[in-house]
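Changelog entry: the Helical backbone metal receptor record was regenerated in this release. Current contents:
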Amino acid sequence: MIYTIDNIDQLKASIGEDTGIVSLVPSLTELLFDLGLDKQVIGITKFCIHPEKWFRTKTRVGGTKNAAIEKILALKPGLIIANKEENVKEQIELLSKDVDVLLTDINTITEALTSIQAIGGLLGRKEEADRIVAAFNAAVIKYTANNLIATDVCYLIWQNPWMTVGGDTYINDTLASGGFRNIFAGQKRYPVIEEDAFIALVKSGKPVFLLSSEPYPFRQKHIDAIQSYHPTAKVVLVDGEVFSWYGSKLLKLPSYISELRKSIQ
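Regenerated structure tokens:
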């Protein structure tokens, strides 16, 4: 059966200390590690690179978009943790016929914090989850977007074609938390920017271009390419994990944004 954060309490009766867990979500795999669930987690994806210890030792069950169904079922997990956006609907439905699935749907920081506490409570790690949330909230108190001058940004996730993020994404919310105003916030999901429109945008000299390290591995050569249209265009490489991973990676967001703002002022 498929469960969500809203009806997660219905799962508790079937979850115990010996419940085997397969995580199909890299950012939540990292959260499970930080919650102290080493023994319970028996399978992860090939993109679950954090922590490195798990990446080297845990059974890998394919990717986020091409889960190895038979390999997962052979592990006989009691719970699969998935995500509405990152995983394929048909694969999750197929797995749910044999294994309980917790299907997360996280598009804001608030939803991320709620999910951390819900997962912690479900898996007997409430105190650990509460500590992560409290640590994030304490860090946020040190700076707030309300005290920052809004900075227009274009956050790029892909090239050929150029792709950015819309206002209904988790990345948009993490940007906004640091006073970054996403110029594509009025669009949905992951808009494509046509080449002519992109060149015109660069030549306008207005937004700061944030080039994410994932899913596309932007490098210095891409900065050079953008600045060939406008030599003084402000272009910065950023850590995509900090902006898009919604588990315990959240703890790195406040300090990272603080340093990023200093670097582009």
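The CA atoms of residues 154 and 209 lie 5 Å apart.
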